[in-house]
Specification:
single chain, alpha+beta, 11-stranded antiparallel sheet, 11 strands, globular, disordered N terminus
Length: 283
């Protein structure tokens, strides 16, 4: 890790995140599916890139970051399996700025992190405000949803064995993950993503990918092998020439106390070219 400039800039080493979901059928992580949609290959989940910032955030904020901190990333370019990328953290008042680049210097993601969630000036808070909303009744893939739609009482659990398997590939190991089963940010996302079959069950055949992610910890850390319960809320719908998109929150709670433990905010894009509902335009 290096520090440069008048204000310390923390730069990690180049790492090679792995795509563990290459064999998932119909997934953006699959080479054949992704190539057909114009990507250079099966994509590494954006959530995996979150883990590369953690050592520098712990340098800035200490272990309290796992308890009350957040990380908020907007993805600008997808990466493929083992593509080298470097994480950079620039400290600032109230929050740190986060960036990641590949070896060619292309920006992979940008974002923020802080030690006290929620942060009203986080990367996703600002992007959510800036994006123009569309009427979901005008959409095809997401047309059956509405702003404010909610679900609750969804059980969540990530087994210790799944975390241990992932730790064989993680770019930045930490003793807390292996010894205390603390979930790295990527696996807080994996835990919360268990709601997707219910929260987005009305979405037909289409390929989705993370446009942005924010992990907020209120009473962390979250751990593998622990039962949680989730509730979800649809926040906003947007559209681009190539995708329909939805913003939604997944709040993770303790079923015993009723306390909110964490929240993951999603900006999830669904590629129009992958849906039969857009076949006339993209067929």
């Amino acid at each position: 890790m290096t520090q440069t400039g008048a204000v310390a800039e923390l730069a990690g080493e180049f790492r090679t995140p792995r795509n563990a979901f290459q064999q998932a059928p119909g997934s953006i992580h699959n080479d054949a599916v992704a190539s057909k949609l114009g990507f250079k290959g099966g994509t590494v989940p954006g959530s995996v890139h979150m883990d590369q910032f953690v050592p520098m955030l712990l340098d800035l904020y200490g272990p309290r970051w796992f308890e009350t901190g957040d990380i908020s990333l907007y993805f600008t370019q997808a990466t493929v399996d083992a593509e080298p990328v470097r994480a950079v953290v620039t400290p600032g008042e109230g929050r740190a700025r986060l960036t990641m680049y590949n070896e060619a210097g292309a920006l992979i993601c940008r974002g923020t992190a802080s030690v006290q969630a929620p942060d009203s000036l986080s990367e996703l808070s600002l992007v959510l405000q800036q994006q123009t909303a569309v009427d979901p009744t005008k959409l095809r893939i997401l047309g059956q949803y509405r702003v404010g739609d909610e679900l609750s009482g969804i059980p969540l659990r990530l087994e210790v064995e799944k975390l241990q398997d992932a730790l064989t590939r993680i770019t930045e190991p930490h003793p807390l993950y292996a010894q205390q089963h603390v979930l790295p940010p990527s696996h807080v996302v994996s835990l919360s993503h268990q709601v997707r079959p219910k929260a987005l069950e009305k979405v037909g055949k289409s390929v989705g990918l993370f446009g942005a992610l924010e992990v907020r910890q209120y009473r962390g850390p979250l751990r593998a092998g622990v039962d949680y319960v989730a509730r979800t809320k649809m926040l906003k719908f947007t559209e681009s020439p190539k995708a329909e998109a939805v913003w939604y929150d997944v709040v993770i709670g303790d079923p015993a106390t009723g306390h909110d433990i964490a929240c993951v905010q999603y900006f999830l894009r669904f590629m129009k070219a992958s849906s039969p509902l857009w076949a006339a335009e993209f067929g």
